[in-house]
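Next comes this protein.

***
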Amino acid sequence: MKLTQRTYQSDRDYWNIRTFLREVLLANDRREIAWPLYRWDYWRWHVNENILKFNLSAAVFMWETADGRLAAVLHPDGAGEAFLQVHPAFRCLELEVAMLSAAEMQFATTQADGRQRLVVWAHEYDHVRQDVLKRRGYAKGNDPEYQRRREMSQPLPAVPTPTGYRLRALRDVGEHPARSWLAWKTFHPDASDATYAGWEWYANVQRAPLYRRDLDLVAVIPNGAFAAFCTLWYDDVTHTAAFEPVGTHPEHRRRGLAKALMAEGLRRVRDLGATRCTVGSYSEAAGALYASLGFTAYDVCEPWVKEW
């Protein structure tokens, strides 16, 4: 079938891509062969809006049928990366080659020595894509993503709240500064506080269509300060939920806070109707935590690197 390539044009494309990703997730038995919906929302409203600031018309490419049905989407995550989202009904060698050619032209970054570099992500069992990548000069890189999942029919673990802490949902905008500061100290523990960029970015996270404040959870100490957090995203069309992100302030680690928050989150999305929950990880420590909560099944998405 002949497909037409074009660039992202308007918010209408944003909503069409959301519909497309739902269709692809369901067609793939809810395995994350392509991005799940929450990740597209999170990338659009946080990663890109607050950090990368890509011009979407120059960063998102779409392949459509003659009658306008979306068949594939190409976009970055960070600079120098490419993600190929393809509906299984349209998977073919010709489309893979076309998307990789576009990615190499649009997303490769220039290194200090003048060479170009691109990272393309592929699942470990996607032999079609891997074969194309090898023939185009890519080599498998390090630090794959472990896409963990658990069925919500499994019993939920009974995890006590550590003594001295209280678990609850984030409140109104007045708590954005505390929530933002906690994220900063969690993910940048060695950075100078002078480089902290403020809290206004969190309003963009809440603009994502799947965001729910009752699924944005925090652990609070008696003086009101935040010690840990986890945010869940629930899609009531596919009945899937996901954790992104999960974190604990360095001064409050190894006390079971992340596990307690995640257990509370699992209870909440189960009660909303979730039948599957997912979480991604890159480290063994995170993987052990998630496995202890029933996230024992997983797929592996691997980075493939080319320099030229």
